[in-house]
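Predict structure. Chain length: 606.
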Amino acid sequence: MNFGVLGTVEAHRDGKPIDVGSPSSRALLARLLLSRGRVVPLDRLIEDLWEGEPPRQALASLRTFVCRLRRDLEPEDRPTVLLTEPRGYRLDVSAEQLDADAFEELVRRADPQRDPAGALELLDRALELWRGPAYAEFAHSTWVQVEAARLEELRLAAVERRLATLLTLGRHGHAIPDLEAFTRTHPMREEGWWLLALALYRSARQADALSVLRRARGHLAEELGLDPGPALRQLEADILAQAPGLGVPSSAPSREPAAPVRIRCLGRDHLLDCASDVLGAAESGDGGALLVAGEPGTGRTQLLRSVEALARVRGLQVAWAASCRLESGYAFGVARQVFEPLLAALPDEERARLLEGVTLPAADVIWRNRRTGDLSEVLHGLHWVTVRLARRVPLLVVLDDVQWCDPESLRWLAYTLRRLRGVPVALVVSRAVGVPSDWPDMLDTMCSMMPAVRLGALPRQAATALVMEQTGVEPDAAFVSRCVAATGGNAFLLAEHVRSLHSDGRPERIGRWVSGLLRVAGPGAAELVRAVAVLGEEATPDAVAGMAGLSGDRFAGVLSVLVRMGLLRDGTPLRLAHPVVRRTILDEALIASQGAVHIGRTPFQP
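Prediction complete.
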């Protein structure tokens, strides 16, 4: 049995949630967890549960609460968890059973000075345990406030420690967005400002680093009437002096930690063999490339992670970049993702040698965050940065979701592809089929220059293995068949569908995934898909267009995008490609309609 307090109070048995339904039972459970393993006297329980104003029959009510909670936690006759003691009650919970204790143990074990990559993994695991404020639904209760505040302080310290570890690893580019958000949320914590300024300085953004320190000074003066502490003042002086000690530690590894990554192909071993051939070409000094294409959710990123793991086993250096729709207008954004961590990991002298001569125009773009040369000079410089890095150690460049790549980086990729002969570089790229791009012609041209493999539905044996991975037991063949039929063998949908069935929960991640794809598909997509789901067998094109409020070319254009993305199947009637997606959309439409009725609106009314 396991318990959670890092968020709403929860209890689980064998991985499945226990329904502790009544508010009184949940409050009692929370109070006993607060004293984890220690006896809580009767008078203390009564004082806390009734906030100092107990009713006359408080003791009898408390015993009733205990009986209810014991019935929820322990169906058996003999209690082993909620124990009655001479002076009160005790919840027999070990440190391994409570998420708050597990969080503190993971943070304690993290040692960034001795093993920064291992510390980052431990801190990530620790922070993933948090689902919301500690003891969330009882935050107003006086008896929990001290412990909730203590845990929140430990969480914030762990966040700061994780961000500092990213800087130690030379991954300041990754840390900057999180640090920006952290300082906005917690502007009185000087450690966040210090780390953000340092990360910007190490990203060759000295002016931005100084601007951050001015912002920190303004916040502290306005809110507290104080000047920044000694650490912030010293950092400002060091940045102005460009002190050598502010550089990335020379021992910092490359962007991704060297911790082992599981090679997991989900029945696509032949595709991994294709990638292995590309890696072999790079190792032999003659570069190669591979495009991995598939509809959203088919496991492209997982395959790329397996290629990455294989490359690390074979001793290649790896640069990973992931395109983002929100950054598609950021010139050379993807190229910077590729090169910046590799350059940051080099000693200062070696990096200076690599970024001199023909590579200077590229150095201005990917290291100094400015552009001085024309496009052809930058592309040529990036090619020679690639060559010089690969001559040290053969290089694998992985790019996920290329459909959202900025146009300048697309040109760099095309330039590189035409010059791979004789260069120890492997380039492996993934593309989400059917997802719209802002530069479709340029994207198609670049992708046509690479040999391609296509991901589809999972093979039956792989689907069975994935179901077993989610449930922890050997699955029944009929159950696997039903799950595959509901999801069309889509790897993401299958995993999430089985997870939601196994945990008796709603498939919330499927809902967020579908919503994200519909936003990408553009205006009218959500309305069209909802209409198809609601109409079912009556989803003729005319009926769907009428319900969705789309007509003519607009309806045809939206429908075409959704079909190419694999969300819809064309024909009459129109159909959702995956039954589980239709069920999710109908459930969310029902919830939305109930909310609309509650506030006096009709369902589907804008």
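Summary: Residues 251-261, 595-606 have pLDDT under 50 and may be disordered.
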